[in-house]
Amino acid sequence: MSTKHQELANFIWSVADLLRGDYKQSEYGRVILPLTVLRRLDCVLAPTKDAVLDRHRQLRASGVQNVDPVLRRAAGLSFYNTSEMSFRRLLGDQDHVALNLRAYIGGFSPGAVDVLEKYGFDTQIGRLAEAGLLYQVVAKFADIDLHPDVVSNHQMGYVFEELVRRFSEISNETAGEHFTPREVIRLMVNLLLAPDEDDLVTPGIVRKVYDPACGTGGMLSEAQEHIEAHNAHATVEVYGQELNGETYAICRSDMMLKGGDPTKIAFGNSFSQDGHDGERFDYMLANPPFGVEWKKVENYVKAEHARGHAGRFGAGLPRINDGSLLFLQHMIAKMKRPEDGGSRLAIVFNGSPLFTGAAGSGESEIRRWILENDLLEGIVALPDQLFYNTGISTYFWILTNRKDASRRRKVVLLDGRDHWTKMRKSLGDKRKLLTDDHIAELTRAYVDALTIADDPEHPQHAKVKVFATTDFGYQRITVERPLRLRFEVTDETVALLAEARAVLKYADRESLLAGARSLIGTSSATRAEFAMRLNGLGKLPAAVEKAVWEAFSVSDPEGEVQTDRKGKPLPDTDLRDNENVPLDEDIHDYLKREVLPHVEGAWIDESKTKIGYEIPITRHFYVYKPPRPLTEIDAEIKALEVEIQSLLGEVTG
């Protein structure tokens, strides 16, 4: 931000001096942001104000109902105001500022009024009036000249973003819900757009950018600026959707102040109220909330999932308490077809989407679909403590449906966890910062990943790994071992029989138990022999007979192998185990090599085999560090003992 922009933002923020005492610091933005928007709109509309008022009077007199398009043309903008008031005129009636300000706001066109309503600014008008501050605050803003001839749309965007940044940082207890640190966004945009640098300079290009959880619009603004910095003649259309009313208002205001189309910022839940249904985009990026449940929109999501890939969620449904992978599927559904140019997208995730969910689960099936369709280009591991409201580790996922030939069926993993510098002052949970050098290094490493991975001498070689998409897949096999039993009647096994449900309901229970007690001490190594011993119990109902066998059967590694009627071994459910076998390996070869040398007679129940996918990025970058020598640890312990004795001597001496 230039000195001029900084000075203007400082002047606007100086209103905080008036609010101090009546407002908490974290509440300043509730007053400053909407009034900045109002003052800018007031200045932008000033040249055509009289023409709009005259046209409005004519339309009312003639009884025209649909005045909106006519007044937009009269204003020469996508918004207008039909109130006789302006900021200057508000100051002319000191006793009725609140009444006149509300009337002034009510005179804006529907889109602009919607933004101001989402700010909840009417509440602040009442609060300021009650504190005796409203006139002073309005007068302060009336002194700021935000006319487009003085402050361009581009400059106004910078000013507003600086105000949003300050507001978010002093509200750091909730900032991370809707505000992503700017340097994190810059890295994300670089990784998203760097492979397309040559295309971005094409004269007259039009690019559509979308964020389904756009917050205050920082990602959209950064992507737009990046493209326009490469091509001043590019047309960049930004689209977004936001659920939180206040942050939606901020984002839409930003679009209005920059001269963009605010109608492309939709309000509502992207899952249940898709504000851009049917649209497809060149670039998409998002930082959706981590670990937020989707129970409120469960019916909508499940109904769309039932439509398969005709809907957005055909790949699978994650567990109800984390909708992160729903956002990703939503974005993938808005990719342009490859024949139409394709799309690229980047999204911020925590570690959960990498590995949560076993084979066959919703999460695993979503990963499987993404990888089998060769959509995942790369994942970048970021330092922890980068965000305002969480210190956990985070990751960028970069996806595209137009990989170049060299990257097809490959996935790049980039370890950026060591690229950070410590902040002088923490902001909530944010204690680390990415510098411009870090951003440049990581961007270069990502773009050159294939070359780096093949060059063991490259300084970044240990931080870059390239895998085939199938490397993340595995076969979850169920390994069964034969059920081996011996048979005996003891006090303990009779007690088990007495408590069996079928026996408790058996009419001749006492007679059965008396017969069982008479067999105490009886045992056999084979089922056939033991069956003869049980003949004395008489003919029993099937359920009771089953209970008898379960009670008198004892698991024994040296016991008889039990079989079904076809002579096949029965599995011992207590010894059942699962193994993950790499996707490209034959499961029977795996069994012979890894299992049978240790467990004789084991087999795979192929009916239970499932395909799973996970991306254990931490494991791939793990570097073994041998423990310190015992002599070194022992010396350290002895030194500490001496120090403790010395300190105790000082206390007791």
Describe the structure.
The chain has 653 residues and is of the alpha/beta class. The strands form four sheets. The protein has a nine-stranded mixed β-sheet, sandwiched between helices. Strands 12, 17, 18 and 19 form a four-stranded antiparallel β-sheet that branches. Strands 13, 14, 15 and 16 form a four-stranded antiparallel β-sheet that branches. α12 packs parallel to α20. It starts with a helix and ends with a helix.
Helix fraction by DSSP (H/I, runs of at least 4): 40-55%
Sheet with most strands: strand arrangement: 3-2-1-4-5-7-6-8-11
Q: Quote the beta fraction.
A: 5-15%
- In total, the number of strands is 19
Sheet/helix structural class? alpha/beta
Distance between the termini: 63 Å
Which outline best applies? elongated
| Unreliable stretches | 173-178
Radius of gyration: 35 Å
Could you describe the largest sheet, including whether it forms a barrel?
9 strands, mixed
| Helix count from the secondary structure assignment | 29
Mean pLDDT: 90
How would you summarize the topology of this molecule?
Layout: H1 3-13, H2 16-19, H3 28-45, H4 49-62, H5 68-75, H6 87-90, H7 97-106, H8 110-119, H9 121-130, H10 134-142, H11 153-170, H12 182-193, H13 197-200, E1 206-211, H14 218-230, E2 235-242, H15 245-257, E3 265-267, E4 283-286, H16 298-305, H17 324-332, E5 344-349, H18 352-355, H19 362-372, E6 376-381, E7 395-400, E8 410-415, E9 421-427, E10 430-433, H20 436-447, H21 449-453, E11 464-468, E12 473-480, E13 484-488, H22 491-499, H23 501-504, H24 509-517, E14 523-524, H25 527-533, H26 542-552, E15 553-555, E16 560-561, E17 577-582, H27 587-595, E18 603-604, E19 610-613, H28 617-620, H29 630-652
Parallel strand pairs: 1-2, 1-4, 2-3, 4-5, 6-8
Antiparallel strand pairs: 5-7, 6-7, 8-11, 9-10, 12-17, 12-18, 12-19, 13-14, 13-15, 13-16
Helix pairs in contact: 1-11, 3-11, 3-15, 4-5, 7-9, 8-15, 11-15, 12-14, 12-20, 22-24, 22-26
